[in-house]
Fold this protein.
Amino acid sequence: MAGHEKEFLDKVNSRKAIVGVVGLGYVGLPLALSFAEAGYQVLGLDVDEEKVRKIGRRESYIGHISAARLKETAIHFSATTDFRLAEEADALIICVPTPLTRHQDPDLSFVAGTVAALVPYLKKGQLLSLESTTYPGTTQEVLRPPLEGRGFTIGEDFFLVYSPEREDPANPDFQTQTIPKVLGGVTPACARVGLALYGQVVAKMVPVSSAEAAELTKLLENIYRAVNIGLVNELKLVADGMGLDIHEVINAAATKPFGFTPFYPGPGIGGHCIPIDPFYLTWKARAYGIHTRFIELAGEINSSMPRHVVDKLAGALNERGLPLKGAKILLLGMAYKKNVEDMRESPSLEVLRLLAEAGADVQYSDPHVPALPRTRRATYDLRSTPLRPETLASFDAAVMLTDHRAFDHELILRHSRLIIDTRGAFPQGPTVVKA
């Protein structure tokens, strides 16, 4: 075992290693807290000064992470915007966004920019891990060259791995520590070092043969979900045409104890992973002359669902003698999934945009989103509308887009004139239209 590897492992095993986490969002913050709770000194690095200030005040900016948890880790966890302090860390874990360009191509500017900001302050013996979802080859093609440009020999005096995040915000059944973690190293020594570090805070490590295998594993996980959601969204259209309730059908099929995994339809797909990850693979596949038709078709179906919701709403209003233009519409739920405040790529925003373009008078209610934030597509000056009987009755229709647990479903059902239900949240009835 080479000297740098042994030195790193000794620090990890003795809890003397300093862990740097770059990007303190939905992935980076819980990871940083996990290492701090295990007794490591953790240095958070982020360009967002407000996040750094809130961590300094031990205030949480993510709903499912409590301020108490931040306070309990105060002696082990600090944050800064000064990337020069990266030289103090023994391990640096990159957890930054990997969005798409306006042409739906991978945008690695956050990853590349982060690496460029870190490289001048890196030193021999460190570990660099990338957790951001990306296409196979990113670790080798984007991270490795600038490291070797500094004179590091990967696997000997510097270690490089890819270990994709698997966070599921607000899921009470799984936390960072209990979700098995995949890791692929650029060399065997890199893998050993990475497994040793993450193994201190994650119950089960899943080593794979290379960084590329780990990168593709992450894409497979999310493409699997995107394709199956696309399938069930298409089946929803078929069931609707036949006058059947797709949720009843799915729940019946789910009683089969083998060979079936239930997926549920909705107004589209959202979050940072499912709407984006398939495009990373289709883009990379083109370099090998492969056209990923199956994946792209699922993407087309999922992308069409907000338009389907608006069409169902327009049809239901028309049956009641009301045009969509000028109609008062209340959108229920703007976050991309229930019980969180995360707005990234939420299909609710697309429904809002389509309704606004059609001339509807649109408001929203979401207990987790008090005001609509600026997005890469648009800015809306809207705040959440409290749900009261007289408020619900004043709208021509309410559209259930995100079925938050905090919503009073009985109240909504009793006082709404018309409900467009995209989540199977309400029983079929004279005022409920499934979409």
The chain has a mean pLDDT of 94. The CA atoms of residues 173 and 179 lie 10 Å apart.
